[in-house]
């Protein structure tokens, strides 16, 4: 329950009591986290639509290459490892935040950002390779839905890295304030959410895509 603090205007200046009024300040303690949960639920709907689109178009090759011919599973598995390990390192950062250890918190956040950048680099390499092979998003319904789903996830990771770098500067400058701790918690939920979505992409798109 958040605290409501009454403020008395004119009380200390000797003003007429009839001109006194109350200013009520009300901010729910968990309002930010609740709002961020609502955002994540809306993002779930976005990815659900993209997964549904891929489910419908994923076998429409239009005489072009199939997933079994295009996907490099060892490369995708390495990319998956980068993202999953980054989720673990972010968890270490949150543990260090609770212990109020700024230096180690920033180190783990930096490692998380580096792993996220490695993930994006391999994903971009895959896109460039596919387009170079003539398997761009315009080639077939399968490739259109594939690029839409995977690129949307990659865009989320990009924004997550930008957010992470911004928070590193804020924590380094202002320390573990209540606001910074709340922002780190929101980014933690966002980062783990991206991991869960990628597990779905890896299973539903890549693993099932190489099946005959």
UniProtKB/TrEMBL annotation:
GO terms for biological process: aerobic electron transport chain. Heterooctamer of two A chains, two B chains, two C chains and two D chains. Its main location: membrane. This is Cytochrome bo(3) ubiquinol oxidase subunit 3. Residues 29-210 form the Heme-copper oxidase subunit III family profile domain. The chain crosses the membrane at residues 36-56, 76-93, 105-125, 145-169, 190-211. Belongs to the cytochrome c oxidase subunit 3 family. Keywords: Cell membrane, Electron transport, Membrane, Oxidoreductase, Transmembrane, Transmembrane helix, Transport. It is a multi-pass membrane protein. One of its GO terms (cellular component) is plasma membrane. It comes from the Bacteria. Cytochrome bo(3) ubiquinol terminal oxidase is the component of the aerobic respiratory chain of E.coli that predominates when cells are grown at high aeration. Has proton pump activity across the membrane in addition to electron transfer, pumping 2 protons/electron.
């Amino acid at each position: 329950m958040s605290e409501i603090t009454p403020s008395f205007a004119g009380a200390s200046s000797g003003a007429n009591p009839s001109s006194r009024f109350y200013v009520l300040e009300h901010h729910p303690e968990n309002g930010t986290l609740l709002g961020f949960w609502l955002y994540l639920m809306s993002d779930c709907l976005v990815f659900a639509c993209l997964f549904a689109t891929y489910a419908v178009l994923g076998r429409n090759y239009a005489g072009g290459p199939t997933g079994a011919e295009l996907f490099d599973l060892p490369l995708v598995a390495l990319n998956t490892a980068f993202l999953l390990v980054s989720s673990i390192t972010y968890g270490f950062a949150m543990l260090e935040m609770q212990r109020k250890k700024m230096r180690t918190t920033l180190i783990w956040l930096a490692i998380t950002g580096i792993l996220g950048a490695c993930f994006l680099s391999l994903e971009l390499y895959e896109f460039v390779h596919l387009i170079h092979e003539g398997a761009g998003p315009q080639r077939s319904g399968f490739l259109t839905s594939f690029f839409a789903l995977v690129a949307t996830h990659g865009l989320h990771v990009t924004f997550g890295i930008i957010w992470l770098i911004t928070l590193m500067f804020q924590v380094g400058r202002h320390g573990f304030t209540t606001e910074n701790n709340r922002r780190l918690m929101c980014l933690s939920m966002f980062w783990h959410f991206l991991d869960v979505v990628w597990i779905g992409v890896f299973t539903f798109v890549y693993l099932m895509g190489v099946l005959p």
